[in-house]
Sequence to fold (112 residues):
Amino acid sequence: MSFSTTRTPMIEDASRPQNRGEPSPEALADVNADLTRRVVVDTHRMTWEPSPSGTVWRKPLFRRGGEFGPVTSLVRYAPGGAFPDWIRSPHMSQHSPFSESGCLNYVRVGGL
Fold:
């Protein structure tokens, strides 16, 4: 199998998360979804995307299938930030990630 290498487009740097209004789940574009291509992602040049919670932002490194498909992201919680009822919780469980002081996480959800 051969791989080609591309760089993600340069995106204006943002020192703070920006809330520009959350697009509908089906409107979220795939990001680096072609696994036959090697990419280099400069996360310092990416802007933060708002999440449905309004207190959590993300920089998607990989996404396929919009809000509900597999995704790998850097995720930034504002102080007090939370996902009140996380949709990917296993059946009959409760999982509501939050951060009292704010944090930055590497998150992978779904199979790749």
